[in-house]
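can u pls check wat happens w/ protoporphyrin IX containing FE
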Amino acid sequence: MASATQKNTLVALILAAGLGRVAAQDAALETQIVDAMNKVYGVHPGFRANHAKGVVAEGTFKAAPAAARLSKAVIFNGNPIPVTVRFSDSTGVPNLPDGSPLANPHGTAIKFHVPDGSETDMVINSLKFFPVSSGEDFRDMLLAVAESPAGAPKPTKLEQFAASHPNMPRALATVQTPDSFADEEYYGVNAFVLVNGKGERHAARYIMAPEKLVHLTEEEAAKKAPDFLIDELPARTARAPVTFHLKAQLASPGDSTKDASTSWPKSDEIVELGVLTIDKSVADSLEAQKKLLFLPGNLIDGIEPSDDPLIGVRDGAYAVSFSRRNP
Ligand code: HEM
């Protein structure tokens, strides 16, 4: 069962996106996207339409002093904040081998449990920037995949899409299989606005940096056991805690906050927000992940969405996927 907070958020999202319409001429974009995912990956009852295979863990976030200077959000005040984290493989295929190139980008979803009982989420992945900048293009990219099976006449629909959206192949070239979920760097891609106690606003993209980055070659990844990433994380946390450094890349003038398909320059200021420590596995991860809903737009005071259109589309699509996997 979803928590009451999740149910309320879900109902609000479904109403906001017009997803509750019964006799609409056209399904809402968010529904079209989840339908397109189901077309590409198949329907797997009980599983997410994307990032279906994952593992849940728990830990703590402790903010660095610089975080409170950027945002008044309670999670950045320096007190330890309990977190629930889910690491995942890409695609809606729940038994995809972890070493498959299709399992890239890998994802991390973090739920911060705020002392007042509320929650805020970050949903990030290993792509350094996103293949497309709008929900419409994301739907069309998925449909192009669906219409480009092996042996399809050349140029395939997907090749045509890549030619007209050059940031797509560029983005996909930024991912590799890690040797562990703990040894990967994850990027927020979408910009959020951090607001501090003085009302100062900074647009930022999150980066979650590991202690060490370890990528495998395709040949090495292909030789790994099908569940090597999923199985390794609980084994590793049983031995010692896993830590990541959460950072904010601050936008400089000229950086687009509404185009997640472009990278921001390396010269941008990067501020350490704090350390995420993951030290507990969850007894029945498969069952735990069913009840969890992470939403990129589930924010608290001090963190606001930017003008990036993907944030709203993502919220709507995640809600559609959640309602289908928890009928
Ligand atoms: C228009 C853009 C996007 C759409 C429509 C979309 C759609 C979805 C959907 C439908 C799910 C399944 C949600 C659920 O059942 O709970 C999902 C999961 C996920 N997506 Fe996206 N996504 C988009 C962009 C992104 C971006 C930019 C990132 C990261 C930077 C991302 C990372 C993830 C992750 C990590 C999960 C798994 C969340 C979990 O563990 O519960 N997605 N996405």
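Confidence is low (pLDDT under 50) at residues 20-25.
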